[in-house]
Design goal:
By secondary structure, the protein is an alpha/beta fold. Helix 2 runs antiparallel to helix 19, helix 4 runs parallel beside helix 5 and helix 10 runs antiparallel to helix 11. The longest helix has 29 residues. The protein starts with a strand and ends with a helix.
């Protein structure tokens, strides 16, 4: 049987074939003059041309039918499969392919492994599988996503072969829905065989959940329930109870306490342990229950031995105030006044900061009270806000609706190292001054010595970049390093200050040059320090600073060099890293002490970035603006937070200059008349950022600059209204309830909305947001699913606490909750899901037969399992279709030319017969005929010559005609009249035809030969 068949895309055009009899009839009559043979040939060609034309109109296609089979082995590599059986899976595949793949037919085989995701281990190819171990081991085997594996297998297999998927799994699917996908796979003609993996029926203890009430209130006793499931045989079937210990912990912030710890006996099945408890303080709480088995044999997996739950108890409004540990007490007056106005304030020093976003949920607003990003004087004392902590503050406002307020001070805003951070993006002002008229310029020179610490050059680059990033756009910066040509600046500079450039337009190029820097082992300090003091002294900056990092090995600078630094008010801070003993440290310490700088001694480069961030703030001091005689701030924008406050404000003696953001949302409420540039004279500004609100107060709370405000009559009202405006709404949530649940890797959020009369609230525009365990925002859209019921969901792919914030409507108090995903459902089920396995195999593929559930995969691949022929038939033959009508059109054109040629050209095919006779050795009678014809032509030519000679010998002389008296009739005019004598003498010879003469010559020739 040929592997190709014809099909038609538009078979209706085949009805045109009925016109063939008419074509034959017309052609038979019109082509009669061609003779029988040529007419038959012409009619046959016309039939072919018409047929090809009709086939082309019908969209003829070439269908190739193939019996090649492609088998994809889909191997479950999730955590529910014992590791020993994962290797048995591969052994089964290798042996099965080797035994049953038909190499002559060209069968193909491939492997896909899957857990939470699917990956191609071996694409389909026509050879044996020689693999000893799986290379594409799944990094995330904490889930079973059979749907993605089947989808990938279908996309991987070639469509021009018959296809079958062999799934090796325990059937414990907990992500995706393979049952829905199987219908699509079967519709594509793909068969499915399943090799069940039988799980060991050993004892397993699983802590399912901690059940907490949804409406816990402060001071109200409640009952928590811990549900533990013991997967073991019942006592009547030979099983025994499991002995162990249960422990319940409560965690709020960094504080952890044990609520319950006791020995328990678990009966087979579910066991519930109640716990009575009371929460006295509003805060977010995380409860964790853990089971510790007495014997390891009583429990197979440890990942499912604990469960967590999250609850948030809300009280009246609470505020977290973070202050610098070196200035504790500067904001005691503010804290006391806020507490007097029924605002609960919790203070926290920057050396004991929050550790998770959950801790921030206990507060409706956070105040950064004059605190710098980095503070401290040496390696052991330096503390800083980490990038994750800054991210938590921003997410707490943007995604969860809490307020954020920054209060000024000598080390706040840009002067506190917050420039370029995520906090700056959240504020209504920028911390960098862009106005060139404001002389808030500092100059910084860095002297880099390749110290002998681990990864020295790497840390040199890190600390240089950290310092450059902290500088403002108008600040000047330069880097000195030593190479084989001596001390040199890393980049050029101005004539008055060689090596120093303005940071703003050159920041990107500076960072690029630093990345390529390779500092050498500097032999002496003096040359580099002379170059630094020369450039810094000529720089147009109000604050000038130099930083030296070294191991103390270079020689001491000259006394004149130190004097030059002191005379030009240039301070030097030194950092001793892996110094050469006491001498090196004393040298660097002496340089810093003589110039009024700081000395640091560190043993690891990891502390260097924080040190340089702190030192870079020295050149930001010009951002602190203290005008002579002070200034009286003015209210320039009426705002709700200023209602009832006297428009005549007390004077201030200073503030930190900022730059108003170029946004219509940023509102400047209070402004100073000094300096002359209003965009840099902001005292109070606010705006809405995401779901929350942020504000800046660039002066302090009365400890240094705003001392006149301490006795101001509106002090309490001003600060309490400012903080209350920022706080997350804490009013009664009415009859809104929020609940969460986790299923199939999705967190479902349900909000029920009722009016005061218990009627349903419909068509609300709810805004919602969620944060995963890594503080990444997750899209969450709430839609109405029923009267007064709103539903949303988002994926929960990792273990941890997820925070959800739903705002039911404009001005409504947000609904805040959390859900904890302790571990994947992969660790919950310990039995093979035969129902899913049988349903997959029972699906009948299009054009084929249902699949098989083979012998189970045990601790070794049995012969019965290997003998299962997955390359058997029972599948629809593969068909590949290609359009053939262009080739049919080309063939029809060629045949049409043949039809024209047959009708217009008469071909002599006699040469064929003569050639055959000649090949047979027969005498050619045609040659005799040709000889005779030649003789006849010769005789004819001789006769013709004789006749011509006789005609030439006859002479005709003219005669005289005598007149006659005979009458002439008019009717005889034109007629020739002759006498009988003339008729006889002029009688012409008898005429004969050419054929008659030829026959006569032939007879004479025969006579001459004696015939």
């Amino acid at each position: 049987m040929l592997p190709y068949r014809l099909s038609f895309e538009h078979p209706i055009y085949l009805w045109l074939m009925l016109a063939l009899p008419v074509l034959w009839y017309l052609g038979y009559r019109s082509l009669g003059v061609l003779g029988k043979t040529r007419r038959a040939l012409a009619l046959m060609l016309r039939t072919f041309v018409w047929t090809i034309l009709v086939f082309a109109l019908a969209g003829v296609q070439l269908v190739r039918v193939s019996d090649v089979i492609t088998v994809m082995y889909v191997l479950d590599q999730s955590e529910s499969i014992p590791s020993a059986k994962r290797q048995v899976m591969l052994d089964f595949v290798v042996r099965n392919v080797k035994r049953h793949r038909d190499g002559r037919r060209g069968d193909k085989a491939g492997i896909i492994v899957f857990g939470r995701d699917a990956s191609i281990e071996i694409p389909p190819f026509d050879d044996e599988i020689r693999l000893r171990r799986l290379e594409s081991l799944m990094d995330r085997g904490d889930a079973t996503n059979l749907e993605s594996a089947l989808n990938l297998a279908q996309a991987t297999m070639p469509e021009d072969t018959a296809r079958r998927i062999v799934v090796v799994t325990d059937g414990n699917e907990n992500l995706g829905q393979a049952r829905k996908l199987v219908a699509r796979v079967a519709a594509a003609g793909i068969g499915i065989d399943v090799v069940p993996v039988m799980l060991d029926a050993k004892s397993e203890v699983l802590v399912e959940k901690i059940d907490l009430p949804s409406d816990i209130r402060k001071g109200q006793p409640f009952e928590a329930r811990i549900v533990v499931n013991n997967y073991t045989d019942a006592p009547s079937e030979g099983g025994e109870p499991t002995q162990g210990k249960i422990r319940v912990k409560q965690k709020v912030g960094d504080n952890e306490s044990i609520l319950l710890e006791q020995d328990i006996t678990l009966e087979p099945g579910k066991n519930v342990f109640p716990l009575r408890h009371t929460i006295e303080q509003p805060a977010p709480y995380i409860y964790q229950a853990e089971f510790v088995p007495e014997s390891k044999d009583d429990d197979g997996l440890r990942q499912n031995n604990s469960a967590t739950a999250y609850t948030h108890v809300r009280g009246k409004g609470r505020v977290l105030l973070i202050e610098d540990r070196t200035r504790l007490g500067d904001f005691d007056l503010l804290v006391g006044r806020l507490r007097d106005n029924n605002i609960e304030v919790v203070t926290q020093a920057n050396d004991n900061l929050f550790g998770s976003l959950a801790e921030l949920q206990a507060y409706d607003a956070v105040i950064l009270a004059g605190v710098p990003r980095v503070s401290g004087s040496n390696e052991n004392e330096i503390v800083s806000f980490t990038d994750p902590q800054i991210e938590m503050l921003v997410r707490n406002t943007q995604q969860l609706g809490a307020g954020l307020l920054m209060i000024g001070g000598p080390e706040a805003f840009g002067a506190g190292g917050w420039t370029g951070s995520e906090i700056e993006k959240a504020m209504p002002v920028d911390f960098k001054i862009k106005n060139a008229k404001v002389q808030a310029v500092g100059a910084l020179a860095l002297i880099m010595h390749a110290s002998e610490m681990a990864d020295g050059n790497h840390w040199q680059k890190v600390i240089c970049k950290s310092a450059i990033e902290q500088l403002g756009p108008s600040d000047l910066a330069g880097v000195l390093h030593w190479n084989f040509n001596g001390d040199a600046w890393l980049w050029g500079g101005y004539p008055s200050s060689p090596g120093l450039l303005e940071v703003g337009p050159n920041r990107r190029n500076m960072l690029a040059r630093i990345s390529k820097m390779t500092p050498g082992d500097m032999p002496q300090f003096d040359p580099a320090m002379k170059m630094a003091v020369k450039s810094l002294s000529g720089a147009p900056a109000s604050v000038k600073h130099c930083i030296i990092i070294s191991d103390g090995d270079p020689s001491d600078p000259m006394p004149g060099t130190i004097a030059a630094f002191k005379n030009n008010n240039i301070t030097i801070s030194t950092v001793a890293v892996a110094s050469h003993g006491l001498a090196g440290s004393q040298r660097l310490q002496r340089i810093a002490t003589q110039t009024g700088g700081k000395y640091y001694s560190v043993k690891s480069g990891r502390a260097l970035p924080r040190i340089f961030q702190r030192e870079a703030r020295r050149v930001s001091k010009p951002l602190v603006y203290e005008p002579p005689g002070g200034a009286v701030p003015e209210v320039i924008f009426p705002h709700a937070m200023l209602d009832g406050i006297d428009r005549v404000l007390p004077p201030i003696t200073g503030f930190v200059m900022t730059q108003t953001k170029d946004s219509a949302l940023a509102q400047v409420l209070i402004q100073s008349p000094k300096p002359d540039q209003p965009e840099n004279a902001t005292i109070l500004a606010a705006w809405t950022y995401g779901l929350g609100r942020t504000a800046v107060l660039t002066t302090d709370a009365g400890a240094r600059w705003a001392g006149a405000w301490n006795d101001w009559a509106d002090y309490d009202k001003f600060y309490s209204q400012l903080v209350r405006w920022l706080m997350r709404p804490t009013g009664d949530t009415g009859k809104f309830t929020i609940a969460t649940s986790v299923k199939d890797g999705q967190v479902q959020v349900v909000v029920n909305a009722l009016a005061s009369d218990d009627s349903f609230l419909d068509f609300l525009e709810m805004s919602a947001t969620a944060l995963d365990a890594d503080l990444n925002p997750i899209p969450l859209s709430m839609r109405q699913a029923a009267p007064g019921r709103y539903v949303g969901s988002f994926p929960a792919t990792t273990a941890g606490s997820y925070f959800v914030n739903v705002v039911p409507g404009p001005g409504a108090a947000p609904l805040t909750t959390g859900v904890t995903v302790p571990y994947s459902d992969e660790y919950r089920v310990r039995e093979t899901n035969l129902a899913l396995i049988e349903s997959l195999a029972a699906t009948e593929p299009r054009g084929g037969t249902v699949g098989e559930v083979t012998a189970p995969l045990e601790n070794r691949a049995s012969e019965e399992l290997v003998e299962t022929d997955v390359f058997r038939g029972g599948l629809a033959l593969a068909r590949s279709i290609r359009d053939a009508w262009p080739w049919f059109v080309l063939g029809g054109c060629c045949l049409f030319l043949g039809d024209v040629m047959v009708r217009r050209i008469a071909f002599d095919f006699g040469w064929v017969g003569r050639t055959i006779k000649k090949m047979r050795g027969e005498k050619d009678s045609a040659a005799e005929v040709v000889t005779r014809l030649d003789a006849l032509r010769k005789n004819k030519s001789q006769i013709d010559e004789g006749l011509e000679k006789r005609r030439a010998a006859v002479r005709f002389d003219p005669t005289r005609v005598e007149p006659s008296d005979d009458a002439v009739e008019l009717s005889d005019v034109g007629k020739t009249k002759s006498t009988p004598a003339e008729s006889k003498s002029v009688e012409a010879p008898k005429q004969t035809s050419y054929t008659e003469r030829l026959l006569e010559a032939k007879r004479r020739a025969r006579k001459d030969k004696g015939e």
